[in-house]
Records
---
Amino acid sequence: MSAFWLHVCENGHDKLDRYGFVKSEFCEICGASVLEKCPTCNNFIMHVDYGMPTVGTPDYTRPLFCKHCGKPYPWTAAIIEAATMALEDDDILTDEEKSKAIATIPDLIVDNPKTTAAANRMKKILSGAGNVTKDVFTKVVSSVLTDVAKELMGLQ
Ligand SMILES: [Zn+2]
Ligand SMILES: [Zn+2]
């Protein structure tokens, strides 16, 4: 029988295994705990059971959010947290600018009706931030920004 489980560490390193966990595992790349279920709702991140022998493996993209409960997975939450830290640590922006910028982050990583406005706002606020903030923020979020957000922010 062909069955597959997507296993992802808290930092987002993923691999497709042909077994479900009987005991906990740790990431071979970074040492963090490996998850096979959403920590919020306890549904599998991805479990495919073809019910018969198959050749090859299912295609997948590591999800950012749980399709069962909508909460960000730990690797997504970590990026949001790191981007928030980068903005909070800025020496030039006002507290109001910081909170406005932080509030746009979730709309920059998933295309939704607010993404364009969020990217414009972030670009504007970042242009007034220190260079270190710009660098750190860009590095932290570059792997998860939507193409629309990247383009509007001039990051591609
Ligand atoms: Zn890892
Ligand atoms: Zn969930």
---
Amino acid sequence: MATKTNQGATVCVSFCPHVAGWPFLMWATFVFMVASRWAAKGRRMFDLLIKGGTLPNGQVADIGIQGAHIAEIGKIEAGAKRVIMALGDLISPPFVDPHFHMDAVLSYGLPRINASGTLIEGIALWGELRDLATVEDMIGRAVTYCDWAASMGLLAIRTHVDTTPDHLRGVEAMLEVKRIVAPYIDLQLVAFPQDGLYRVANGRANVIRALDKGVDVVGGIPHFERTMEDGAESLRDLARLAADRGLMWDVHCDETDDPLSRHVETMAREVTRHGLGQRAAGSHLTSMHSMDNYYVSKLIPLIAESGMTAIPNPLINITLQGRHDSYPKRRGLTRVKELQAAGVTVGWGQDCVMDPWYSLGTADMLDVAFMGLHVAQMTHPEEMARCFRMVTEDNAKIMGLQDFGLRKGGLASLVILDAATPTEAIRLRPDRLAVVSRGRVISEKARNDARLSLPGRPAQVRRRHS
Ligand SMILES: [Zn+2]
């Protein structure tokens, strides 16, 4: 009997009808078992095999993928329907953006540009646009953006959806976008009362309508309510809502330069009261930049005690904050290193791409990490490496993503970058050579070295240096 394995190895088992009795049966069984194991080993065939990449921890490994999951990591000698050679390239878990506004994405200039560059003019412009934009407009822009995200290895996004207008067209559009991109991007929606929970007539009712329609996360914007008291009350109200429904809670909290704003404190208190812990995230927290150091020495332990996470958005807040300052101008970033030192999980959020608040943006979370690293002065080698973890692992933790990370049995979602290490990836913000989502290669880009025409110099330049 001859068995042809998938790899072409041939296994032979002899059968002799003239030999009988127990010794023969034992011998035959032994030969069969050995042959079966040999054949089974030879048959190992992955759907996708990535050879020789470097993981973020520096380990060089092959990754064998079967279906939507990682079947093996390590030194792999097996066949595959498709092999990607990643020799020396960085293989990372996908990038994650825990703070975005996809209902407004790619709307820069509509209905006109934000001339002052302030948060307030941005909110006013958006207030006009959200009533002009159709559901189809918003779906079209958002799905185009998701193409960008897929090409950059950004495979999980939490987006705030404005629930202010009674028509809830943004909610309708984003629920549809979530359905469209579900095969390759995890999209979480936050019911976000942009104009305040109490400041507009149906602010609270519309948050609840949005949650009833299937929006995943409770939002909030206490610093935009009429008074500090209203803001505090909105936090108590929304925390209860999240706790009662068993939902996550993500608040635009104190996105202001006001050193006396105290909503972060109230939010931490409510997170502790309801035991929300890591299910709650404080977004922006920029007032903490301006606060008195003594007060912050009390506040940070309260935040740590609550277990809540923090999402600064450095691209946006370095441009929006400090607009009322002459000089020195505040950077408007929350106290990232101090929060991390206290044990708080801090991620980096992107917030906006080409919308009423921000005229640039690329869907590249390495741009976000790059800016965050500079503004927070995270220049020690460990801090730079941490900035990479913030836009991958830490952001995944903030979003509560299950099955995230490069490990045997985990979801086969990953990115191959034209860089050798996480820190080099932040420095170069390099091409994504391949993006794999749930076992499927969804984006590829050829390596694109520059060609030099300089006498006596190399013909090609890649700018990698590690
Ligand atoms: Zn935001």
